[in-house]
Amino acid sequence: MRDRKMIWPPQRPVRYRRSGRGDGMSNEQKYSLGDDLPKDNPWQDDLLGYAPFAKMLFNAIRDLDAPNGYVIGLHGRWGSGKSTTINFVKAHINKFNEELEDQRNRIGFIDFRPWIVAGHQDLMASFFKVLTENLGTKDNWWKRQGKGFLRHVRGPADTLVEALATLGMAVDPTKVGAGFAGAMAKKSINGMIGRFLDEPSVQLAYEKLKLQLRNSRRRIVVAIDDLDRLEDHEVRSIMQMVKTVGQLPNVVYILSYDRQIVWSALDGNLQRSGPKYAEKIIQQEIELPQPQRHALLKILDREIAFLLATQDRTSRWEYLVIDGIHRWINSPRDVVKLANAVKMAWPTFKNEIDAQDLLAMEGLKLFDEAAFNWVRDNRDFLFSEGRFAMTGDEAKTAAVENLKRRYPDNERVPQILNVLSALFPGSAKWLGGNSISSEPYEDVMRRRGIGSKEGYETYFGWGLPKDSIPKSVIDALLANLDNSGLIANTLGQYLSRFNSKGEPMIGLLLDELRIRYRGRHPARPTQTLLDELFKIGEKVLAIDWEPPFLSLGPKAQIRFLIRNMLEAWQKGDAGIRLFEAFEKAQSAAFCATVFVDMGRSIGVFRAESGDAPLIEKDAFDKLGPILLSKILTAAAEGRLLSAPYYFDIARAWAYLATPAEPKAWLASGMQDNAEFMVKVGDGLTAHSVGAPVRTYSMRNHPEPELYDLEVLIEAGKKHLKNGKLDSGQRRMLEAIVNGSQRILAGQAPDSDWPVDDDDR
Q1: Alpha carbons 432 and 430: distance in angstroms, whole number
Q2: Cα–Cα distances in angstroms (integers) from residue 545 to residues 450, 478, 505, 548, in the given order
């Protein structure tokens, strides 16, 4: 059987219980799933303008004289409101009957629902049973005969009613359907005479019924709803029944259906035209008027008010509405499908995905399935990863052409591309020819749109993947930027965790925060957050993880986050905030890293990029004494040895004191300890990214005021001999020794210079 009815509008609340989130929201949220049960009351329930049409149809039936019966066809798409219209007609008939002074003029209404029963034998039997039960007390004869009659039509073999239908179609002067009738006759006529009972024949009963109906002048409306939900052979059985045994005096049929489905069923496997066949049965076809879009959208707006109540109406949203929602919503059922999909998804995605994007994605899934599948299957294209990381426009254009080929008619393609461009502004160049949305990626990420990697992976992971930071965590942190306990707990929760991809989770968290401090509407910077970042700074610098070539690791993320926070403050205020953070900080190593970053921005230290100054020069100078004190104390206590690397410490120390002190400290440490020299080498070498085996080379000439080339060569050779290095560390020290030897020989440091076997 074809699908039964969907559900609209809401009837009872469905509860989704949620665990406490700590975000001030109720642990239990209610969403009422909609249904599309047809409406009954045209004076109270008409939301889409069907009542005037139903009243017009009732007036036509009321004034219709049908001595030989009449068949009205009510055509409309599935879910367009045909059942509601029939119910409204019934309501007008009931009202008409109640107001009659002469009850002999009543109009009877029989609601026959053929899709409840299966098989054409049961359809015939059920029809006459319903007819019998609704003829009233005056029709005693038929009620007496009904039981015996139904005994025939419900028999285990072919019934007399089938014979009637067969004979009726066989003598049809148009000869339409004779092939089907003949097929029925072959299996049903044999042995039928022997099964007549002592009661009057069915033929006689049928003729008496017609005579009784004609003489009584009683009018009856028989509604046969959802004809298009039957199997093809059942559709043909109902139509034959209406044409033959169902053709009764003063009986008006209202058949509701989707024309395309019923015409196809009537055509069957025979070489004849469905519409011409139907015209022999349906004397008047009326098309259900389309509900106005604004009425449908008003209902949708009411159903999903929980989703969009706090959303901004941006130009991006307008594209989603015009090219998406307006195209998708054409019937009450469309409203229900989309609203219910969102209600089912929202408890999972609330606070994790942008609400407007969720609505658009659910719409694509329901109404533009090919486009939805393309989005799901083309992640690398949408985020310029995998094979699209280095490819040109040609490969990306080909990917979009693949999407277009999924829509041969091409009519929907421009609108679909506009929707996708609004959802994925980073790919709009290839999706729409030109960008309809200039939204920066950081804004997409901030609202956790589907066009961000985190939003995409959360949506297609049906919930929050373990590889991402929940948006609710970010939102809670940003809502409590003065709460040191919450910030420390949140940072600590992810500091030592790695996801299934091997990525440090703290890097993802810092990246999320960094994005919030960029763009047109940066988050509010606070001293509390800055202080907590300084507390974890050295541990972040110590994370041994190499990011992909086009990504940033935690070491870079925390530095850029602090830079972005300082940018959000005024320059003078930024210096004051940084001074306070330096005073409170315990880590000389992390303070040195931030100090060197600030020095690069104002030109004190050599910089490869021309970043704008973040603090004034006098504010920078005030940081120096604080940092120098921390360095000297940590060096004296031996704590400086545990720093993740020494490059920034040495540069800051040399700038704030004299180069001789850090130079001596470095030389002594390199001679005494292999691990110390590896940490020194971290600032002197560059290494390959993405290769199975990491290779090293000297960056540039080491600063002579800090590094003695002879010491580098001597210490490197010493530790290469001791065998206590792993393979990567050995390659690093080999690069330092080779590079230093080349520099002493007057050559560039970054080419291979084989270390003598005797020196290993």
Answers
A1: 6
A2: 28, 27, 11, 10
Distance CA 520, CA 517 (A): 9
Q: How far apart are CA 707 and CA 104, in angstroms?
A: 115
Inter-residue contact 647 to 638 (CB < 8 Å): no
Per-residue model confidence (pLDDT) at position 196: 29
Asked, as a colleague might, if the bond just before 9 is cis with ω within 30 of 0, I would say yes
Q: Which two tokens stand for residue 472?
A: 């609710």
Amino acid letter for position 655 = Y
360/365 Cα distance (integer angstroms)? 9
- In whole angstroms, give the CA distance from residue 653 to residue 667: 15
User: What is the three-class DSSP state of 234?
Assistant: helix
Q: H or E segment at 586?
A: none
How many CB atoms lie under 10 A from the CB of residue 278? 22
**371-399: b or e for each residue (b if 16 or more CB lie within 10 Å)?**
bbebbeebeebbbeeeebeeeeeeebeeb
CA-wise closest residue to 614 among 631, 594, 628: 594
| Distance, CA of 457 to CA of 470 (rounded, Å) | 11
CATH number (3.40.1090.10, 3.65.10.10, 3.40.50.300, 3.40.720.10) of 50-287 reads 3.40.50.300
Sign of the Cα torsion 380, 386, 390, 393 reads negative
The domain spans of the chain are: 50-287, 292-453, 658-760
The whole-number pLDDT of residue 368 equals 94
- Residue for token pair 């300084």: 534
Residue for token pair 């929202």: 346
Q: Look at residue 7 in the predicted model and tell me its pLDDT.
A: 32
Pinpoint the alpha helices (H) of 175-273.
178-188, 202-216, 232-243, 259-267
* Helix, strand, coil tally for the chain in percent (to 5): 60, 5, 35
What pLDDT is recorded for position 175?
36
How many angstroms from the chain centroid is the CA of residue 552? 28
The three-point CA angle 300-382-501 to 5° equals: 105
Distance from C-alpha of 688 to C-alpha of 695, rounded to nearest angstrom = 5
Q: Are strands 107-112 and 219-224 parallel, antiparallel or unpaired?
A: parallel
Token pair belonging to 241:
């029944």
How far is 435 from 423, CA to CA, in rounded Å? 11
Query: Residue 248 is inside which H or E element, if any?
Result: none
> What is the spatial order of strands in the sheet that 219-224 belongs to?
107-112, 219-224, 251-257, 70-75, 284-287
Q: Which helix (H) or strand (E) holds 367?
A: helix 355-367
Phi then psi for residue 15, to 5 deg, are: -100, 135
Amino acid at 711: V
Nearest C-alpha neighbor of 725 from the set 703, 700, 696, 689: 696
Compute mean pLDDT per 10 residues along the chain, 760 residues long, and list them: 36 37 45 74 85 91 89 86 91 92 86 68 63 53 43 38 35 35 36 34 67 82 87 83 82 89 74 64 87 86 84 83 92 90 90 92 95 93 83 85 87 91 90 66 88 90 72 91 95 91 92 87 94 97 82 91 92 92 97 95 80 89 97 95 94 95 95 93 85 84 92 94 87 93 88 43
Distance of CA 366 to the CA centre of its chain: 11
Cα 456 versus chain centre, distance: 8
Count of CA atoms in the C-beta half-sphere (13 A) of 1? 13
CA dihedral 433, 435, 440, 443 (to 10 degrees): -110
* Euclidean distance between CA atoms 224 and 155, whole angstroms: 24
